[in-house]
Amino acid sequence: MSHPDPERLFVYGTLRPGDCRWALLEPYVSDDGIEDTVAGTLYDTGLDYPAAVFGGSGRIRGIHFGLSESTREEALRELDIVEDTVDGLYRRVILTTTSGTQVWAYEYGSGLDLTVIPSGDWFARA
Q: Which terminus of the chain has fewer Cβ atoms in its 10 Å neighbourhood, N or C?
């Protein structure tokens, strides 16, 4: 049995409100977002944006937003293009957050020199 695609997007880095790429996401969101975490490890790429590898015992802090139904596909297409053009070639995956919400999120691909962010929070990196 197939599950419907998530209606929410979990963001943990530059797409969060207050960072440089929030303006790309903001027109597509339908709510104020919910702070949450997902299992994984957050890394500093040294390129002014983070990388996430999902799974394991660590936690990544972020926020998930509802994507407006009328523009959801457009939003995901645009973000797929943006995320696929940065170094590391990110891919969109489906996750379940710590609170049990099913979300889309962008996971790191490969090829970068990464440094662990122990807090799991891009905004709290040293």
A: N
Domains of the chain: 8-120 (3.10.490.10)
| CA 101 to each of CA 9, 12, 38, 45, 64: distance values in angstroms, whole numbers, following the listed order | 10, 15, 10, 27, 9
11 touches 62 (CB < 8 A):
yes
Task: Indicate the residue type of 58.
Answer: G
- CB-CB contact of 92 with 106 (8 Å): yes
The per-residue pLDDT for range 30-53, each reduced to its tens digit, is: 999 999 999 999 999 999 999 999
- Name the pairing type of β-strands 115-116 and 34-44: antiparallel
